[in-house]
Amino acid sequence: MMKERTGGVLSVDIAHRRYVDNGIVFLAQGSEKVQVVKTDDLGLRDPPTPEDFATALHSFCDRRGVSVLLLDGPQGWREPKSQIEHMRLCERVLNTPGKTGIVGTAKPGTYLPYIRFSIELFQHLRTLYGWELLTSDWIAHPWKQWLVESFPTSAWKTLGLKKLPAKAKSTRDQLIARRDDLSKITGLKLPKALTHDELQAAVVLPVGTAIVRGEDERVILSGIDPYLTKKGVVLEGLIANPCIPS
Fold first, then answer.
1. Residue 18 lies in a domain
2. Would you say the pTM of this structure is higher than 0.90?
3. pLDDT tens readout for residues 42-59
4. Do residues 91 and 30 lie in contact, with contact meaning Cβ atoms separated by under 8 Å?
């Protein structure tokens, strides 16, 4: 008999310059009420480091029974032999603004510090705390704690919603309207006051819930499974998006 899937979902919209700029939301098992998590409450102090952030996130997940951790950032580098230039397959499919190249490169170059921070965050969670990078056969492994790459910009589209404008261009009224749209279509009970980063973290929660419940019809995967080189470097990887079955 297959083990029943259980656990909560934690979603992080990653920022690498200041902890306060991260958007973090939590959904407990069986709940529809979304809770905001502040980095101060996690005991984090600037400057951010991938190892400290990984430790704090894992500690929260361990205390609160989280089995799916969503991170808005790349998990690995581009496969050097890929026929797709400058980026990973998942980034080509979803047209992400930042392109992860071979180890140590990115386009545009200004994205490299963020990309490196994200990849190292994934690495620490995987190697220090035993989180598993999501693979296409996830449904056959209900006992695993999945570490999942997300891309909120595409999640709005896959849910059939108007996307949230860029942070610098979003008005308060737009944040409220998108929050209400998201709540209506998903049934999530969202806090009234959500920052842009927190709302971006919230829009991907449904894919985490679907993974916990084993509802593969509500999960869209883009890219190819991540894999390790002989030197332990992660290449490529999947981006998971939520959908509402018709």
1. yes
2. yes
3. 999 999 999 999 999 999
4. no
